[in-house]
Amino acid sequence: MGVRAAVAGASGYAGGELLRLLLSHPHIELGALTAASSAGTTVGEHHPHLAPLADVVLQPTTIETLQGHDVVFLALPHGHSGEIAKALPESTVVIDCGADFRLADPVAWKRWYGSDHAGTWPYGLPELPGGREALQGARRIAVPGCYPTSASLALAPAYAAGIAGPDAVVVAASGASGAGKSLKPHLLGAEVMGSLSAYGVGGAHRHTPEIIQNLSAAAGEPVSVSFTPVLAPLPRGILATCTAPAKPGVTTERLREVYETAYADEPFVSVLPAGRWPTTAATLGANTAQIQVALDEDANRIVVVAAIDNLTKGTAGAAVQCLNLALGLPETTGLPTTGVAP
Ligand SMILES: NC(=O)C1=CN([C@@H]2O[C@H](COP(=O)(O)OP(=O)(O)OC[C@H]3O[C@@H](n4cnc5c(N)ncnc54)[C@H](OP(=O)(O)O)[C@@H]3O)[C@@H](O)[C@H]2O)C=CC1
Ligand SMILES: CC(=O)N[C@@H](CCC(=O)OP(=O)(O)O)C(=O)O
C-alpha cells in the first residue's frame, strides 16, 4: 500500500520526529513537507539527523500544498488546524498533534485556551478503555498532549478497575523539547541546564482538563486532578509520578494484577517487573511507555510512575500509531520499541 503523507510544521520538533518515524514506515511515501517562516529552507537545516531528507525544500503551509495527500499530519501551534482540516476532503486522514480537537467540553476549551472551540475528534490514545475502537477507520484524529499521555497511561487502569478514589495528584518532569523549538528566554541552555523548575503550579497548566477528561472517562465519574509540571534539564523525556487514594481492600497484589491485566496485550506499554522503576532514558526514541506501581500503605495511596519520550509516544509515535489504526494496518507498523542507550 502506498500512502502519500504530508507533514505541516516539518521544521519543528514534533514535525522532525514525525519525519524520522515516517522514513522507516513501509507504507508511507512522503509528499509535501511544510513550514511557516522556514519555508524555502531545507529539512537538513532544521534536522541534521534526517540525512535522507537533507536537501528537501520546505514549502509554505497552505491548503494547496497540503491537498492531494492520503494523510496530512499537522504539527503546528494551536489554533491553525481547524481551518486546514475544513478545507481538506473528508476522505483525507488528518492527524493533529496540537490541542485544538482534544477536549470534548467547549466550556473547558474556552476557559483554558481562550478561543472558540473548533470541535472534538477521536482521541489518539488507543490504550485508554475503548480508545482503540474510536480510532479504527477514523479520518480525523487528535493526538494527546504529552503530559496527558503519561498521566493517563499511569492512572486510567486504576480508575477503570474501580480501585482508585477520585482525587489524583500528578507531578511530571519533562525535557525542554516539550516546549517546541521557538526561542523562549526561560528555555535558554544556561537557564535549563543544571536545574529543575516547576511551572504552571496550582492547577494552572492547560493539560489539566485533558487529564481530567481521560481519568473521569476511565472512572465513569468525575475525577479531580492536581497537576504540577516540572521542567527538567533533558532534551526529551517525561517522568510522571501519579498518585490516587486506594479504595478499601486494595492490596499490592491486586494493584499489580490490575496493571498487568490492563497492559498484557499492549505492544507499547510495559509494566516493569517488581522492583524496577521507569526511566526516561529507556524510552528515548521509542514509542514505548514504561510503568511501575506501588501501594503506599501508610498514605493509603496508589503510586504509579510512567516514563515516555514526549516526542515519540508523547506526540509523533502516537500520531503514527493512530495512522496505522485509521488505515487498518497492524498498529505497530513502522514504530520502534527499542530506545537509544546509554
Ligand atoms: N514538543 C512536544 O513534545 C509536543 C508538541 N505537541 C504539539 O505539536 C505541535 C508542534 O509542536 P512543536 O513541534 O513542539 O513546535 P515547534 O515550535 O518546534 O514547531 C512548530 C512548527 O509549526 C510551524 N509554525 C509556526 N507558526 C506557524 C504558523 N503561524 N502557521 C503555520 N505553521 C507555523 C513552525 O514553522 P517555522 O519553522 O517556519 O516557524 C514549525 O514547523 C504543537 O501544537 C504542540 O503543542 C504535542 C505534544 C508534545
Ligand atoms: C516542557 C514544556 O514546556 N512542555 C509543554 C508541553 C507541550 C505539549 O505537550 O503540548 P501541547 O501544547 O500540544 O498541548 C508545555 O508545558 O507547554
Automatic annotation (TrEMBL):
GO molecular-function terms, A-Z: N-acetyl-gamma-glutamyl-phosphate reductase activity; NAD binding; NADP+ binding
Active site location: 146
A GO cellular-component term linked to this record: cytoplasm
Keyword Zinc: no
Functional pathway: Amino-acid biosynthesis; L-arginine biosynthesis; N(2)-acetyl-L-ornithine from L-glutamate: step 3/4
The enzyme's E.C. designation: 1.2.1.38
GO biological process per UniProt: L-arginine biosynthetic process
Keywords from the named record: Amino-acid biosynthesis, Arginine biosynthesis, Cytoplasm, NADP, Oxidoreductase
Localization: Cytoplasm
Record domain Semialdehyde dehydrogenase NAD-binding: where: 4-136
Catalytic activity of the protein: N-acetyl-L-glutamate 5-semialdehyde + phosphate + NADP(+) = N-acetyl-L-glutamyl 5-phosphate + NADPH + H(+)
Signal peptide: none
Pfam families from the UniProt entry: Semialdhyde_dh, Semialdhyde_dhC_1
SUPFAM superfamilies with a match to the protein in the record: Glyceraldehyde-3-phosphate dehydrogenase-like, C-terminal domain, NAD(P)-binding Rossmann-fold domains
Functional summary from the UniProt entry: Catalyzes the NADPH-dependent reduction of N-acetyl-5-glutamyl phosphate to yield N-acetyl-L-glutamate 5-semialdehyde.
Family: Belongs to the NAGSA dehydrogenase family. Type 1 subfamily.
PANTHER family assigned: N-ACETYL-GAMMA-GLUTAMYL-PHOSPHATE REDUCTASE, CHLOROPLASTIC-RELATED (PTHR32338:SF10), N-ACETYL-GAMMA-GLUTAMYL-PHOSPHATE REDUCTASE, CHLOROPLASTIC-RELATED-RELATED (PTHR32338)
The name this protein goes by in its record: N-acetyl-gamma-glutamyl-phosphate reductase
Gene name of this polypeptide: argC
